[in-house]
Amino acid sequence: MSLLKLLIIGHGSQAKAWSTNLQKSNASVTIGLRSGSPSIAKAKESGLPVIELDKVKDISDFDAIILLTPDDSHLKVLELLPNKHREAQRIIYAHGYSLEKDYLHHRFPNFSHLLLAPKAIASEVILLHQQNKPIPAAFSLEHAINPASDLEVIQRIANSVGMTGRLIQTTFKEEMSCDLFSEQSILCSVLPRVIKLSYDTLVQNGVSQELAFLECCLESRYILNTLLKVGFPKFFDIISPNALIGANKATNKLFDEKFEQKFKDLFTDIESGKFYQEIESADIDTLRKKMVSLYSEGDIEVTRNTLQEYLN
């Protein structure tokens, strides 16, 4: 079987993770960047060959082009590629958002648009590969031009990156909706906010910072591990009576019909396209500063740094 020859466009966290794992699996990896990108020097320092997308004349010899730049840049990136690729050149996305939002499969019908979406942040993509543990992932061939050969390449890339478990077949839209909703409903909102709010409430009421951190932050990791290990019903069958009574009280008090409706509204805004508009109008720099400032309040970071022995 011939060596995979891959072009990864981008050199951010996911691009670095994919290229690191692919190199260790003996794939041929080249990084594609715009002329003048500050990432060119960094990519070369890592030992990877680099091509400048706006200057290169031919990319037809790559088995696949993997788009790992921010979603909002994909349209502009693909506009640099026409007349430089072969018919049915494979374009692999790590998320479904850009294709669904900008109809990239209609704008660029000569590409074979494929999805290979790891369900792990970049640091975990590297760590799981190092530990020889499968990286969970989903894929889609709905916009493939040659489904059989495209699937073979997707599977080879997945195995080389470390996505060695069962790949979940999906669609671009389903992956996009699931990804955006989970970020909003728990991963980047409820989870960090409730953990910090619980910590701050305990500290404000006289509990030591270290104990509050262990209870609210560290035990969250253990609880989630247990839920995944034994399952949700079993978890509530084995927790202590006090924990069970407290869980019932908080569930009834916090998670009322209004809360559930807000979840439904979040999903509706994604499905209707309203969230697209919010993304388009957002001032990312201002918003990032706002969220960083919010989570910089209080002393949770100071406490986290003093308890590093428990976090590795």
Give a verbal description of the structure.
This protein folds into two domains: 5-170, 3-Layer(aba) Sandwich (Rossmann fold), CATH 3.40.50.720; 189-310, no CATH class. 56% of the residues lie in helices and 13% in strands. It has helices at 13-24, 39-45, 74-79, 97-102, 104-107, 122-130, 147-161, 172-187, 190-204, 209-230, 232-238, 241-254, 257-272, 274-281, 284-294, 300-306, and strands spanning 5-9, 28-33, 50-52, 64-67, 89-93, 111-118, 137-143, 168-169. It has an eight-stranded mixed beta sheet with strand order 3-2-1-4-5-6-7-8, with helices on one face.
Chain-wise SSE layout:
Elements lengths: L4 E5 L3 H12 L3 E6 L5 H7 L4 E3 L11 E4 L6 H6 L9 E5 L3 H6 L1 H4 L3 E8 L3 H9 L6 E7 L3 H15 L6 E2 L2 H16 L2 H15 L4 H22 L1 H7 L2 H14 L2 H16 L1 H8 L2 H11 L5 H7 L6
Helix pairs in contact: 1-6, 8-13, 9-10, 10-11
**Averaging pLDDT over every residue, what do you get?**
94
What is the helix/strand order? Answer: EHEHEEHEHHEHEHEHHHHHHHHH
Percent in helix: 55-70%
The count of domains is 2
Q: What would the principal axes of the Cα set say about the shape? A: elongated
Radius of gyration: 22 Å
The CATH topology of the largest domain comes to: Rossmann fold
Q: Main β-sheet: number of strands, strand sense, barrel status?
A: 8 strands, mixed
User: Which class best fits the helix and strand makeup?
Assistant: alpha/beta
Number of helices: 16
Q: First CA to last CA: what distance?
A: 40 Å
